[in-house]
Structures are given as structure tokens and as C-alpha cells.
Design goal:
This protein is an alpha+beta fold and about 250 residues long. The chain has four helices and 14 strands. It has a five-stranded antiparallel β-sheet. Strands 1, 2, 4 and 5 form a four-stranded antiparallel β-sheet that branches. A hairpin with a 2-residue loop joins strand 4 and strand 5.
Length: about 250
């Protein structure tokens, strides 16, 4: 069921979005050559405890994963792009790191992701990250009352293809509210003018993710981490946004 929130409920969600943005900002600052993925997860865990928030990941056990997840942060490195399970890996120069984080604060959930390069960046990695960010911005711009869900997917797919990337639609965005994953599903490609009509009060996570030279994915041995089939790198950008009578609100702004 698609839930529409009142303006007051959207205001009540704001602390969750602000906290998610703060945590990801801190993690990007800390992520560097020589930092272990488990250190990043531990830092996120400590910030959750200090805030009195609740992780959406640690007990998460969907049908597609080997649950429960057991960590509070997704850390996807290089050819990993989604659901990266933190493990004993020390970041090396040039690694492309995607961080995905969702928590509940006072019963409201927000979800966001960011990609960065540690150490010396490869221009190709920066271009990949930039394209996911541009696709996210384009999708947010059309996330307005009266438009259709297909407009969001079309905006993402259009930016991706214009930059020379193909799009995988197996995983995408989703409704957000009292739980992390709700209706509607928000595909990363689509046809403009088609699908569910966007209405004020709809809160969704929009999350374009791309792989450098393929749109095919596979599951890692850990039962969680999603990898490219050809070893090419991936990037992921995500914000939780609220649709209003005017401009969309980016709940997880950093």
C-alpha cells in the first residue's frame, strides 16, 4: 500500500534525514587509504547509539539476502555496487567506495547513499560517480506532484544512457516512512508520463546506481554484496525525498 504523509509527519521525519546526512558526511571524511571497512561500520554504529537511533540494516533479512545483515552500514568497494557487507578489508589507494545508510529516528526512517574515491582518483571513476549524482538530481527535479513515477525513471535512464552507461532495473528506489522499504518501487529507468501519479505526501528514496561497462550483476559469496559480472566498478547515489505541493524536499541533504 502506498502511504501519503501529512506535512506534520514529513516535519517529524526531518531529524532522521538530517542524521543520515550527518553520518554519511562524517564517514566520507574518515574514509581514506588505510581505513578498514569494519572501522567505518563501527563508527556508524557508535553514532547511532549516541543519537538514540535504530539501525534499519542490522536485523534486515529480506528474501534476496543471507540475513540477518548483522551490520549497520553497507560498504561496497570497486566492483561491488549494492548491499556491500562490511568485512575485514583495508581501503587502498584509488578504491571506489559506496556507502549506504538507513536508520529510524523517533519511528521515522530515512535512507541515503554516496560514492567516493579514496586516495588518487581515476577519472573514469569520478565520471561514473558524477553520472549517478546527475541522474539523482534530474530525478529529484521531476519528482513533483502531478508528474508520474515513470518520469523519475526516465530522468535517471536518460542521464545514464547519455553518458554511455546501461541501466539495470533489478534494484531501485522505494517508498520510505515507518519502514525502510515500502511501496512504490521506484525503477531506475522508465517511460515518461507512465505509472503512478505523484502526489503530495509521498516520501521515496531515489537511488540511481551504475556499473562502468555492464548492467549485469551477481551475488558475492557473502550472500549480500552485489557485484558486476565483468569486474567493472560501480557507483551509487541516493536521497530520501518528500513530494509536496511545490518543490520536493531532500530529507537527507548533506
Amino acid at each position: 500500500m502506498i502511504e501519503l504523509l501529512t506535512p506534520r509527519q514529513i516535519d517529524e521525519m526531518r531529524p532522521a534525514g538530517e542524521f543520515v546526512g550527518q553520518v554519511l558526511t562524517k564517514l566520507v571524511e574518515v574514509a581514506d587509504v588505510g581505513v578498514n571497512l569494519l572501522e567505518l561500520d563501527a563508527l556508524a554504529h557508535e553514532m547511532i547509539k549516541e543519537r538514540g537511533a535504530e539501525s534499519c540494516y542490522i536485523d534486515y533479512a529480506p528474501s534476496f539476502g543471507r540475513g540477518p545483515f548483522g551490520k549497520v552500514l553497507c560498504t561496497s568497494v570497486n566492483d561491488a555496487v549494492l548491499h556491500g557487507l562490511p568485512h575485514d578489508y583495508t581501503l587502498a589507494d584509488g578504491d571506489l567506495l559506496s556507502l549506504d545508510f538507513a536508520v529510524s529516528v523517533d519511528g521515522w526512517v530515512c535512507d541515503s547513499a554516496v560514492s567516493t574515491v579514496v586516495g588518487t582518483p581515476d577519472p573514469a571513476d569520478l565520471a561514473l560517480i558524477s553520472t549517478t549524482e546527475e541522474a539523482l538530481a534530474a530525478a529529484i527535479e521531476v519528482a513533483r506532484a502531478g508528474n508520474k513515477l515513470g518520469d523519475i525513471g526516465a530522468a535517471i535512464g536518460g542521464v545514464a544512457r547519455a553518458a554511455g552507461y546501461s541501466v539495470n532495473t533489478q534494484f531501485g528506489g522505494h517508498g520510505v516512512g515507518r519502514t525502510m522499504h515500502g511501496e512504490p518501487h521506484v525503477p531506475n529507468d522508465g517511460r515518461a508520463g507512465r505509472g503512478f501519479k505523484l502526489r503530495p505526501g509521498l516520501v521515496i528514496a531515489i537511488e540511481p546506481w551504475l556499473l562502468a561497462t555492464t548492467d549485469e550483476i551477481k551475488m558475492a559469496d557473502d550472500g549480500w554484496t552485489i557485484l558486476s559480472t565483468d569486474g567493472s566498478r560501480g557507483a551509487h547515489s541516493e536521497h530520501t525525498i518528500a513530494i509536496t505541493h511545490g518543490d520536493p524536499i531532500v530529507m537527507t541533504a548533506r
